[in-house]
Amino acid sequence: MNESTMSIDVWRPSSSAFPFIKGRVAFYAILRAAGIGPGDEVVVPGFTCVVVAAAIQYTGARPVYYDIILDTLNGNPGLAEERITERTRAVIVQHTFGMPMDLGGLPDICRDRGILLIEDCAHAMGATVHHRPVGTLGDASFASFQWSKPVTTGLGGVALVNEPRLRDSMIELYNHEFQEPSFVKSMYLALLSTTYNRFFRPSIYWMARDTYRRLVKLKIVQGSSSMDELLSPDMPPNYKERFGHQRRRQIDMALDGLPDVIVHRRRIAQQYANWFSARGAMIQSGPEGANPVWLRFPVLVENRTALLNEARRRRIELGDWFNSPLHPSVSDPAMFGYRSGLCPVADYVSSGIVNLPTHQRVAEADLRRILGFFDEYRYDIVRQEETV
Q1: Is residue 202 a part of any domain in this protein?
Q2: Overall pTM surpassing 0.85 (yes/no)
Q3: Beta 157-161 vs 290-291: how paired, if at all?
């Protein structure tokens, strides 16, 4: 089996890979299968989505945050180790924007102390480190099939469990605590996914995003996140759902197409890297032997608000994640145990990061428009020497 096939096949539904309605639900299920609950602590990077922190709180445990490294945008393994206490039950490592994290000594430390090492692969399905797929480096991992990810089924996620005893617990939990979505809901989600795949283009990014969010707010469309999840520490209704057997073939079809997706994303990302490197910008780096999937290409800028407003006006696709150490900024980080200054590098990065698309619909013409936009308007790209 070659590296590409192995990095994809580990995620196919099996006795070790459990599909859920969302990646965050898969993460919650891993925590529950491990028996994590009140009084426990879970160490997590302070540069993540608020729904990750929320999933920890749903178990009754407490998220404990550690800072990131500026040029990798991934967690600092040394700082993660410093956050470990006698209450720590799990450490989360995140492969941000599809770039594998340097785990440092965390695997050995976690193993010696009986702590679970869980990989957040929401951005990184298909990435490898020294020919090993991300998701197989720890005791368990979770990934997302959400709209913007390398493998998309509209909504969905998967928990990959490598540790045998944890796998047995997950099988029991999956079969008895998590419910199948209704047939109508499954068909509705399949239709949304088909519509997205057929009609989405970079030129309609802003209109599509605004329309989607409006429909979610009106509860006409099921979004990847509800306002209940973003604004409240309480678990929303219908959270504990499996992926749905009616849509299961969508996963295989999406995974079958991943090799071509990865090739395209790496080619686009390399062109971005060449252009921004020539202008002195900081380029996200990874550990030796890392082979990323490049979910998005991140860039630090001085005036993000002006940049995004002009991009919207000119119909240029740009993303703003992570606009808060606990993305998105509409959430109150304090409600999820985060305070300003706790992770200073994450605070700094989230104040000025934007990201460029790498997905299959980015053609050469789109690439030229995006880079031409940056060149024409001369927005202040943060140079390598200017970073904190």
Answers
A1: no
A2: yes
A3: unpaired
